Amino acid sequence: MQAHHSPAQFSANPDRRPRFRTLDCARGIALLLMLISHSMQLLPGNVRPEDWTRISAILLFTKAATPLFVFVFGMTMAFVYYERMLLPDGALFLRRRMWRRARLAFLSFEFLVIVVETANQTPFSSIIMRLLYLRPGNWAEVLNFYVVLLLVGPWVVRWWRRTPSWMRLLVVPSLYLLGTFLAQVPVPSELFVLKNIITSYPLSSRSEVVLDTFPVLQLSSFFLVGLSVGQHLFERLKVNRMRQVFVSLSLFVLVGGLASYFLSGDTVRDFLRDMALDHYRFPPQISYVLFGLASVLAITMYSVWIVNVRKSTNSVIRMIELLGRHSLFTFNLQYVLLFTVYGLLLGLQQRLSFLASLLNTCLVIVVCVTIVWIWERWRLRTVR
Q: What's the CA gap between 61 and 72, in Å, rounded?
C-alpha cells in the first residue's frame, strides 16, 4: 500500500520515473476517492431527503477506491519485484520486504482500531476483543486484506509470473467462486473474524448484520489482474498499445457489469443506489467485482495517459502523486482527522448539512495534503 521512492532511484534509472509516477498517480486517485467517500459517509447528518440522493451520487463515484488500491498494489508488485526476482537473492529479498510491509499494515490496523473505537466510546473490553480479532467491526478492515496478501505475496508473485494466460483466466473467477462457497460454511464465533478476512460471510446473513468485509479470495481478482496488467504495461507493451488494451478490457468488463445488472432484475435507479450504498460490496457480489474492474481499468488508463502521454506536471497531478507516494501514512491520517478531530474533539460526525459536509470534505483533503507534504519534506531532510 505504501510507496517509498527516493530521488536516487529516479536519477539512477530515468526510464523508471514515469512508471513510478503512473503508480503514484493511480494510487493517489484511490486515496482521493477514499477521502471523499469516508468524509461524505461520516459527516452528513442534518440533511434534507433530496440531499441524500446527491450524497449517494458522490458515493457511487468513489466506489472504485478500494478496487483501485488493490489493483495498483498488484501492478506495483509486477513492476518493482518481477525483475528483482531473477537475481540470486530475489526470493529472499521479496519475502523480507513484503513481510516488513505486512507488519506495518498490521500495526496500522491495530492503531486505527484504537482511534475508531475510542472515538465511538466503545468499552475497553470490546476494544481489546477487536484488537485480538475476536470481535468483528467496521472501518480499516481493508488493512487485514493487505496483511494476508503481503504474507503470501512472495509465493503468489513467483507463481503468477510463470502461469500461462489461459490458466490465469481460470484462476481469477475460480477464486471468487471458492470464496463465495466457503463463505457459507459455519465456523465457531471465535473464528468469525478470521473467516471474514479470508472468505467473508454469507449473503443471506446480511439482513442480520452488515459488516465491512474485504475477503482475500473474492477480491484477489483485483490483485491478480493488476499483476498481469503491470507485467504487460511495464515489460512488453508500448503506451499507445496499452491504451487499446485498457479500452478493450474496460468495455469487456463494463458489458459484464451491465449483464449482471439486467440479471439482478433491479431498476437502473435501484442498481446505482445499491452500488453507492455498498449493498453489493458487503459481502462482495459479482456486480461489485465487475463494476470495480471496469472502474480501475479506466482510472489506471487515465494515469498512464496523463503521465506518459501528456507528461503533465501541474499542481493537481503533483498533489495526487504526493498522496500516492505516502499512501499508508495518508490512510492513517484521514482516520485521525475524521474520527479523533471531527468525531471525538469537535463532535461533528453525522451533524453537518450537505453543503457543510462538502466544504469540510475539501478541508480534510487540504489538511491531508499539507501534512503529507510537510512529512515528505521532513523525511527528505533527515535522509540527507
A: 18
Separate counts of helices (H) and strands (E) for the chain = 16, 0
C-alpha cell at 272: 446505482
Distance between CA atoms of residues 233 and 241, nearest Å: 9
In the chain, where are the structural domains located?
A: 7-383
pLDDT less than 70: residues of the chain: 1-17, 204-209, 234-250, 252-253, 256-257, 259-260, 263-265, 309-310, 312, 384
Write out pLDDT tens, residues 279-318. Answer: 888 788 888 888 888 888 878 878 877 877 667 678 888 9
The pLDDT value recorded for residue 334 is: 95
The residue whose grid cell reads 482475500 is 216
Diameter of the chain by CA atoms? 63
Residue 181, classed as helix, strand or coil, is helix
Between the alpha carbon of residue 260 and those of residues 205, 245, 266, the distances in Å are: 21, 23, 10
Question: Kindly report the CA angle at 128 between 126 and 134, in degrees rounded to 5?
Answer: 80
Residues 6 or more apart whose CB falls under 8 angstroms from that of 58 comprise 36, 40
**Residue 23 and residue 71 in contact, taking contact as beta carbons nearer than 8 Å:** no
